[in-house]
Specification:
globular, 14-stranded parallel β-sheet, F-box domain-containing protein, 516 residues, 17 helices, alpha/beta
Length: 516
């Protein structure tokens, strides 16, 4: 039956329509695993001689040039010969992945693939990974290498739109060359450490003679581009989205070329995974305000997410400076997310006051796990030894009651507590007692436009298995959920608000008499 259907389809449809069908199938399969994609397209290619040339090109859509399973380079050398003989298949390569290992330095694979790279003229996506943080810093100047050749070729091809670099620690890292790639839209630096060794005049000449069209930049993990000045980010005047572990030094603002005097004007989404303690935030904002000439620094920003990590509160960033840093320059802000162990120190009413008339979505996650270390501890069975502790949960919710956000439509609140805070079932009851004082916390008086709300408690607690009932963990956890469910149920009394809540209690066995 399948053969009859294929023959009928082949005879009844023109070549162009068949190509569109197979192209559509390939696009739909790209979201599946690589193995599923390859197996399906192989079956299509082998179904008939008509389908073979249409489906075979899709089999070369993504090419892996890594040497993990090809230590001698034989497989890659054969691939190079094949694609050189089939230039239409070489043009079908749109995605290259390469994981560099030490073995590649001991083979002649660089010269073997150099000719092939010239034929790969349609690469749109490139991913390069160093294995186990292999570094070429010791080789200065850096020697010719496959990863540099691949990167250089793709940057100059005028087709590359997406670039991801992982675990690269390199000398003469071509940062400005990457950001100035005319076709590049999105770039990700994951655990990369590099430097921009360039004199002021050289930087001015380069910035003045190049355009920077990147729209999305991600700095993943704390080591990412640790020494890169913020000025490089300001060159990307088309930047729409930035996500990463903080921003970095603002040195060099005074040499910014004239055409970049309105930085970040198009930025729509800003996600600071943590507010880096290494940055002088006050100087940064002074520089930005001077560059913007009194206008809003982020006029197009609609989504802001900030992680307040435990190392944020240094002389470089103070809680009282946060409103000026983030909320006096965002006239278009619609969505704000804040999270982390230091969020309870942020004066939310003061911060959100300037944006209350247009902020429509608010997501807050208070993580009290680190906050309560050494100052908020319950002890098992000995109340006399219990330390005096500030009630941060109560203080935080009391502060929240002072919020007035006229345009807010969607609200999400999460309270996270670790085992250092919640030792046993009594901890859950005490927390529920505290939170029961805030019935009706979420209401139309505070948020007249509110439509949906969600509240969640995430709690890890120690569970001490009894000798006679070692398997009673699940009932123990379920028992702890009951009072917490009751208090969350009462957070919203207005039936016009679509409200949901969730209690996530999980346990960790512990037998110590005194628990921290």
């Amino acid at each position: 039956m399948p053969e009859v259907q294929i023959l009928s389809l082949k005879r009844s449809l023109p070549f162009e329509i068949l190509k569109e069908i197979i192209d559509h199938l390939a696009d739909a399969l790209r979201h599946d695993t690589a193995a599923t994609f390859q197996d399906t397209m192989k079956n299509v290619a082998l179904a008939s001689t008509t389908f073979l040339p249409l489906a075979r090109a899709h089999l070369f859509h993504k090419v892996d040039l890594s040497g993990s399973h090809d230590p001698q380079g034989t497989r890659r050398e054969n691939l190079a010969r094949f694609l050189l003989d089939q230039p239409h298949l070489a043009r079908a390569v749109h995605w290259i992945t390469y994981k560099r290992t030490r073995r590649d330095d001991k083979t002649n694979i660089h010269s073997q693939l150099s000719i092939l790279l010239k034929e790969l003229v349609c690469v749109k996506t490139l991913s390069i990974t160093f294995d186990n943080f292999v570094s070429d810093i010791a080789r200065s100047p850096p020697q010719p290498s496959l990863w540099r050749s691949i990167l250089s070729h793709c940057l100059t091809s005028n087709h590359l739109t997406t670039l991801a670099l992982h675990h690269i620690i390199a000398t003469q890292f071509p940062l400005l060359e990457i950001l100035s790639c005319p076709s590049l839209i999105s770039v990700t630096f994951s655990s990369c450490t590099c430097s921009m060794d360039m004199e002021d005049e050289e930087f001015i000449d380069f910035a003045g003679s190049h355009s920077f069209n990147v729209q999305e930049i991600q700095f993943q993990e704390k080591l990412s581009l640790k020494s890169i000045p913020l000025i490089c980010l300001f060159l990307c005047t088309n930047l729409r989205r930035f996500s990463g572990h903080g921003l970095f030094s603002s040195d060099g603002m005074d040499i910014l070329p004239a055409q970049y005097k309105r930085p970040l004007a198009k930025l729509d989404c800003l996600d600071l995974v943590q507010t880096c303690e290494s940055m002088d935030w006050e100087s940064f904002l002074d520089d930005v305000e001077r560059l913007c000439g009194g206008e809003a620094a982020f006029p197009a920003l609609t989504h802001l997410s900030v992680g307040f990590d435990s190392g944020s509160y240094t002389p470089h960033i103070r809680p009282e400076s946060i409103p000026r840093l983030f909320f006096t320059h965002v006239p278009s802000l619609r969505s704000f997310k804040a999270y982390g162990p230091m969020l309870h120190r942020v004066d939310l009413p003061r911060c959100l006051g300037p944006v209350g008339h247009h902020l429509s979505k608010l997501d807050l996650l208070w993580d009290f796990g680190e906050v309560f270390e050494d100052e908020y501890c319950y002890f098992d069975g000995n109340e006399e030894e219990e330390e005096a502790r500030p009630n941060h949960v109560s203080n935080t919710l009391t502060q929240f009651k002072s919020l007035r956000l006229e345009a807010l439509e969607d609200l999400s609140l999460t309270i996270k507590l670790a085992a250092a805070v919640c030792v046993d079932f009594d901890s859950a009851k005490e927390l529920a007692t505290i939170m029961s004082e805030f019935r009706g916390l979420i209401n139309k008086d505070l948020f007249p436009s509110l439509q949906t709300a969600h509240a969640k408690i995430s709690m890890m607690m120690y569970w001490k298995p009894e000798e006679d009932n070692p398997d009673e963990e699940e009932p123990y956890v379920q028992k702890a959920k009951v009072p917490l469910n009751d208090c969350l149920r009462g957070f919203v009394a207005d039936e016009t608000i679509c409200y949901s809540w969730d209690v996530d209690v999980y346990s960790r066995a512990h037998t110590d008499q005194r628990l921290y």
